[in-house]
Amino acid sequence: MADTTVLITLEPCLMCVRALRHLRVRQVLFGARNERFGGTDSVYNVSANELIDEPVLHCHQLLDADKAVDLLQRFYQQTNDSAPKPHRKRLKT
Ligand SMILES: [Zn+2]
């Protein structure tokens, strides 16, 4: 897994970052920040925490955040008929 790059829509949560580090994934590229559960910087940075005795997980927000959120919303709309209608959060200024 050392040469693996994971490409995802949403910043991984704390637990996913920990699991990816355990699997020794090299890097994660994501679209939108996860302000509620993000484990790379939004809530708490687990990806480079030196207390964890495993290789650092390099995480970068390189993808278009709006497109990533749209893709994620379409996914949930297709898989869950009870899903709430999408709405946009207002960006903090
Ligand atoms: Zn997760």
Automatic annotation (TrEMBL):
GO terms for cellular component: cytoplasm; nucleus. Transmembrane segments: none annotated. One of its GO terms (biological process) is tRNA wobble adenosine to inosine editing. Pfam families: dCMP_cyt_deam_1 (PF00383). InterPro entries: CMP_dCMP_dom, Cytidine_deaminase-like. Residues 1-51 form the CMP/dCMP-type deaminase domain. This is CMP/dCMP-type deaminase domain-containing protein.
